[in-house]
Amino acid sequence: MKHLELPHPSEMSASHRAGEITLILAAAIVRTQLAGANEQREVELAITPYQSNGMDSSTLLGVR
After folding, report:
1. d(C-alpha 39, C-alpha 32), whole Å
2. Neighbours of 61 (CB within 10 A)
3. What is the pLDDT of residue 48?
4. Which pLDDT value is given to residue 58?
5. DSSP 27-57
6. Beta-carbon count within 10 A of 44 CB
7. How many CB atoms are located within 10 Å of the residue 55 CB?
8. Cα separation of 25 and 5, whole Å?
9. 30-43 burial, b for 16+ CB within 10 Å, e for fewer?
10. N or C: which terminus of the chain has fewer CB atoms within 10 Å of its end residue's CB?
């Protein structure tokens, strides 16, 4: 993971500090959401034995 180094708070305006904090939190939220989406996608795209045996789409598919 990339190490973030922020300037000392006395070198930044209050609005700039708030913007930096917001950016860091937003990036963390996006990473968390994408990690959860990848796990969900793995379940949605699971290949079942029925799919490889030529059964039609009316067959109920399981998930791993």
Report:
1. 11
2. 12
3. 58
4. 44
5. HHHHHHHHHHHHHHHHHHT---HHHHTT--T
6. 7
7. 13
8. 15
9. eeeeeeeeeeeeee
10. N
